[in-house]
């Protein structure tokens, strides 16, 4: 239901902009990216196995890799001809599987995946060809999964509004960027049984945190 509502809002936004234009709707340019990053939780309450602000180790989970695209509309010739643009982006990130130990003795692995969408973007240096900084509001939806243990198989779904700050450097068609995402988990923090496997009582986990990505992209005009 949440996804349908957000998609509906996005379509209304696009339609309202298009109706105010004097030229047909078109894309100004787009970038297609690959990226790698690491998430830091605001608090490490899950058996001290995940990175947090007060307990960071570069070898600990969560590490993520993914793909995405950033789309920019062209409003030239409309009332937005002062340079205003509408941008939004879509990403998919995979949590790279890593070993964890629960209750000092239960060996398992943690992985997961998340879908992200930026639904409003403000570009600071709009007319600069070599560099810019993007501020984006959007959301993430996904899940963490614990597996690879006969007595432990669980998932933790979540939904989180997010704020993104993304400095970018443009080198011709190649775009290098850093993306800092702050996401606020608004869902139930409890783990859920996966595929009927009975799980021991696990510490709940709130997935609010900050993720830093390094990305490389290719721009298409």
Description of the structure:
The protein has 221 residues and is mainly beta. It has one domain (27-220): Porin. Helices cover 9% and strands 56% of the residues. The chain has 1 helix and 9 strands. The protein has one helix spanning 2-20, and strands spanning 27-41, 63-73, 87-102, 106-123, 131-149, 152-171, 174-183, 192-193, 209-220. The protein has an 8-stranded antiparallel barrel with strand order 1-2-3-4-5-6-7-9. The protein is elongated and about 55 Å long. The chain starts with a helix and ends with a strand. 24% of the residues are buried.
Write the layout of secondary structure elements.
Blueprint: H1 2-20, E1 27-41, E2 63-73, E3 87-102, E4 106-123, E5 131-149, E6 152-171, E7 174-183, E8 192-193, E9 209-220
Antiparallel strand pairs: 1-2, 1-9, 2-3, 3-4, 4-5, 5-6, 6-7, 6-8, 7-9
Question: Tags for this entry?
Answer:
221 residues, mainly beta, 8-stranded antiparallel β-barrel, single chain, 56% strand, 1 helix, Porin, disordered N terminus
Q: What does this entry show, briefly?
A:
This protein has one helix at 2-20; strands spanning 27-41, 63-73, 87-102, 106-123, 131-149, 152-171, 174-183, 192-193, 209-220. With 221 residues, the protein is mainly β.
The secondary structure category is mainly beta
CATH architecture: Beta Barrel
Query: How many domains, in number, for the residues?
Result: 1
- Whole-number mean pLDDT: 82
The CATH class assignment is Mainly Beta
Oligomer: single chain
Number of helices: 1
Kindly, what is the distance between the CA atoms of the first and last residues, rounded to a whole number of angstroms? 35 Å
Kindly estimate the percentage of residues that lie in beta strands according to DSSP. Answer: over 45%
CATH topology: Porin
Give helix and strand order, one letter per element, not per position.
HEEEEEEEEE
Helix content: under 10%
Number of strands: 9
């Amino acid at each position: 239901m949440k996804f349908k509502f957000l998609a509906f809002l996005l379509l209304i936004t696009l339609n309202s902009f298009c109706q105010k234009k004097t030229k047909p709707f078109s894309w100004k340019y787009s970038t297609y990216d690959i990226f790698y990053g690491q998430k830091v939780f605001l608090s490490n309450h899950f058996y001290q196995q995940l990175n947090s602000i007060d307990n960071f180790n570069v070898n600990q989970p969560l590490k993520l890799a993914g793909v995405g695209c950033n789309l920019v509309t062209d409003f030239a010739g409309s009332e937005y001809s002062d340079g205003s643009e509408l941008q939004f982006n879509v990403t998919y990130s995979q949590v790279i599987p890593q070993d964890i130990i629960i209750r000092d003795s239960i060996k398992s692995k943690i992985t997961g995946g998340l879908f992200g969408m930026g639904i409003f973007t403000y570009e600071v240096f709009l007319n600069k060809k070599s560099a810019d900084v993007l501020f984006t509001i959007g959301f993430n939806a996904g899940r963490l999964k614990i597996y690879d243990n006969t007595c432990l198989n669980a998932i933790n779904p979540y939904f989180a509004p997010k704020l993104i700050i993304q400095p970018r450097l443009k080198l011709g068609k190649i775009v290098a960027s850093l993306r800092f995402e702050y996401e606020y988990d608004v869902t139930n923090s409890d783990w859920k049984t996966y595929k009927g496997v009975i799980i021991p009582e696990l510490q709940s986990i709130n997935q609010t945190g900050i993720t830093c990505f390094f990305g490389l992209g290719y721009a298409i005009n």
